[in-house]
Design a protein that fits this description.
mainly beta, 30% strand, elongated
């Protein structure tokens, strides 16, 4: 038996479009939701969209971005950021996925 499969769109990592790391307990952290449950090896990088500077990276689904430079530095500016997830070879969803996130305060 043989079946042709056509993929029409990219896999959705269920990333929100904005977050507000203001300490109110609502949307204070960012990580694409699917990374919490997939169990896949990944590397998440977040870049300032204007400068391209790396502001955060992780490979741990329990360490989302808190809106600070490397999670400990100064608070990142309000605005747009670009995220990129690289799934490691061997995973069913291997490859690179990206999107944007707006940081609002």
């Amino acid at each position: 038996m043989e079946q042709e499969i056509r993929i029409e769109s990219d896999y959705n990592l269920m990333a929100t479009r904005s977050f507000s790391p203001n300490g109110d307990g609502v949307d204070d952290l960012f990580i694409p939701e699917a990374l919490k449950t997939l169990g896949a090896k990944f590397h998440l990088s977040i870049f300032a969209s204007k400068t391209g500077a790396l502001v955060y990276e992780t490979n741990d689904p329990q360490r989302p971005w808190n809106g600070r430079l490397n999670t400990r530095g100064e608070a990142s500016a309000t605005g747009d950021y670009v995220w990129m997830v690289e799934m490691k070879d061997g995973d069913k969803l291997g490859g690179t996925y990206n999107g944007s996130i707006q940081l609002v305060r």
